[in-house]
């Protein structure tokens, strides 16, 4: 069989070279924002595409058409029309490969051999991604057994192990090229060649859903997971950023940048006669977990509050600046101190079971707001009455209205005060207090009136 040769113009070189015709097309300048689906759409008008290999490390791709004629038609067309994807020029030529083999694909980590473990790369990652977010995205397609996340040269990656291979196939088919959040965090999914994931810790970066009793990683230890990558090196605030983004529909609340990394907040203009560490905890824990709090003895109306991370600190500064409490308008700003040094004059809260964000972080972020006139009470006794609730709270101001109701079999209540300051005082004084034998939980409600719940 004779070898057919064709003359092709080399882009920008001004001379011709002889290239062997092939049904495999080599595509260059394939940015991370370009998905497999984008390439498929570019070449599908010219025939059936049988294989596609993304060479992410080189910003290239190899695409195999069903026959040489289809590849020739594509290259002939794009010799006259500059192919562009998502505003980026891509350059096409015949590949030196006559056929894409399994070895070609696996050598680049882009195997098409179905496996129950997926290797997921996240491109254009404006919001950090956690195990929790990945589980929400991938679990609709089948039972996810294990997830490990890590940082590699190709970017942020995750290994996701399903119980069944067909679940992984369905997930890849459905999710490949999709964005987790609007306009960003694009999924690039391939089958892994691993047989089983090893997970050592259950935390924000790795999880074994079949073994909930694993430790959550010792302090000061790196969470390297079986050599998968540099887990935990980047995105130290990953969990909370993703939970915030998930809570607010893929974005962040107006005025929240999501880029702050200062964890400690300076609170000033406090009422020193009425404030204490626990009251500050009750207020600031609405916006994140509290590590420790320190009242400044040389400035009795000042305090330092160390939040769990910079995102939570930014929420607290944003929503509490200017709030009224005990007759004073609070000043809330980022502190120049990166953290509060532990000592006899600090109160520790890092292990407190009253921290709200250890569970259902996204749900708690969703309810973040500035102080309102309405507070929401939960974890109430089943036989509680409105009269008992009013009696418990009326010392803090005039109560306009109350509503006791049941949700998911649990008693809850709404209490409307005349002013935001009264509601704030009731919250800081009575959150985590005992009412008829139960430790109650209080937060601000964003409802405008109690009638909205009826």
Structure, described:
With 454 residues, the chain is an alpha+beta fold. The protein has helices spanning 36-43, 68-78, 102-107, 131-138, 165-175, 238-247, 277-284, 310-320, 361-366, 386-393, 420-430, and strands at 5-9, 16-20, 24-28, 49-55, 60-65, 84-85, 88-89, 91-94, 117-123, 144-152, 155-162, 179-181, 184-191, 206-208, 264-268, 290-295, 303-307, 324-325, 328-329, 331-334, 346-348, 374-378, 399-407, 410-417, 434-435, 438-439, 441-444. A six-stranded antiparallel beta sheet has the order 12-13-9-11-10-14. A hairpin with a 4-residue loop joins strand 4 and strand 5. The N and C termini lie far apart (82 Å). 40% of the residues are buried.
Question: What is the C-alpha radius of gyration, as a whole number of Å?
Answer: 28 Å
Please count the beta strands (DSSP E, at least 2 residues each): 27
What does the main sheet amount to?
Answer: 6 strands, antiparallel
Structural class by helix and strand composition: alpha+beta
Low-confidence stretches: 1-18, 102-111, 218-227, 229-239
Mean pLDDT: 82
Number of helices: 11
Q: Give, in spatial order, the strands making up the sheet with the most strands.
A: 12-13-9-11-10-14
Please bin the fraction of helical residues: 10-25%
State the separation between the terminal residues, measured CA to CA: 82 Å
Shape call = elongated
Give the strand content. 25-35%
Topology:
Elements: E1 5-9, E2 16-20, E3 24-28, H1 36-43, E4 49-55, E5 60-65, H2 68-78, E6 84-85, E7 88-89, E8 91-94, H3 102-107, E9 117-123, H4 131-138, E10 144-152, E11 155-162, H5 165-175, E12 179-181, E13 184-191, E14 206-208, H6 238-247, E15 264-268, H7 277-284, E16 290-295, E17 303-307, H8 310-320, E18 324-325, E19 328-329, E20 331-334, E21 346-348, H9 361-366, E22 374-378, H10 386-393, E23 399-407, E24 410-417, H11 420-430, E25 434-435, E26 438-439, E27 441-444
Antiparallel strand pairs: 1-2, 3-5, 3-8, 4-5, 6-7, 9-11, 9-13, 10-11, 10-14, 12-13, 15-17, 15-20, 16-17, 16-21, 18-19, 22-24, 22-27, 23-24, 25-26
């Amino acid at each position: 069989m004779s070898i057919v040769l064709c003359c092709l113009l080399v882009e920008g070189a001004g001379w011709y070279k002889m290239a062997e015709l092939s049904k495999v097309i080599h595509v260059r300048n394939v940015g991370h924002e370009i998905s497999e689906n984008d390439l498929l759409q570019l070449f599908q008008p010219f025939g059936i595409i049988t294989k596609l290999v993304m060479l992410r490390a080189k910003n290239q791709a190899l695409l195999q058409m069903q026959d040489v004629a289809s590849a020739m038609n594509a290259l002939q067309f794009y010799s006259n029309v500059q192919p562009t994807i998502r505003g980026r020029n891509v350059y096409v030529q015949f590949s030196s490969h006559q056929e894409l083999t399994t070895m070609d694909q696996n050598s680049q980590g882009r195997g098409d051999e179905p496996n129950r473990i997926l290797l997921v790369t996240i491109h254009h990652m404006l919001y950090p991604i956690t195990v929790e977010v990945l589980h929400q995205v991938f679990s609709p397609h089948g039972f996810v057994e294990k997830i490990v996340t890590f940082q590699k040269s190709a970017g942020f990656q995750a290994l996701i192990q399903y119980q069944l291979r067909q679940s992984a196939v369905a997930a890849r088919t459905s999710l490949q090229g999709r964005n987790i959040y609007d306009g960003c965090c694009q999924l690039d999914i391939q089958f892994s060649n691993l047989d089983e994931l090893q997970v050592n810790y259950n935390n924000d970066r790795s999880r074994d859903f079949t073994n909930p009793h694993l430790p959550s990683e010792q302090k000061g230890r790196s969470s390297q997971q079986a050599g998968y990558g540099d887990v935990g090196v980047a995105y130290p605030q990953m969990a909370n950023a993703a939970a915030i983004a998930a809570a607010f529909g893929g974005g962040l609340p107006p005025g929240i940048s999501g880029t702050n990394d200062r964890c400690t907040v300076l609170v000033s203009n406090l009422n020193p006669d009425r404030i204490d560490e626990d009251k500050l905890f009750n207020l600031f824990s609405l916006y994140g977990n509290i590590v420790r709090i320190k009242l400044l003895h040389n400035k009795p109306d000042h305090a330092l509050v160390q939040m769990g991370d910079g995102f939570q600190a930014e929420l607290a500064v944003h929503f509490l600046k200017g709030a009224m409490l005990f007759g004073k308008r609070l000043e809330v700003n980022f502190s120049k101190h990166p953290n509060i040094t532990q000592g006899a004059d600090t109160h520790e809260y890092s292990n407190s079971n009253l921290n709200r964000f250890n569970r259902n972080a996204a749900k708690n972020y969703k309810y973040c707001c500035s102080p309102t006139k309405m507070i929401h009470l939960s974890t109430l006794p089943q036989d509680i009455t409105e009269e008992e609730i009013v009696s418990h709270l009326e010392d803090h101001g005039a109560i306009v209205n109350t509503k006791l109701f049941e949700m998911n079999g649990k008693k809850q209540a709404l209490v409307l005060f005349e002013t935001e300051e009264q509601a704030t005082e009731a919250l800081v004084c009575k959150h985590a207090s005992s009412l008829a034998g139960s430790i109650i939980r209080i937060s601000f409600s964003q409802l405008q009136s109690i009638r909205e719940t009826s």
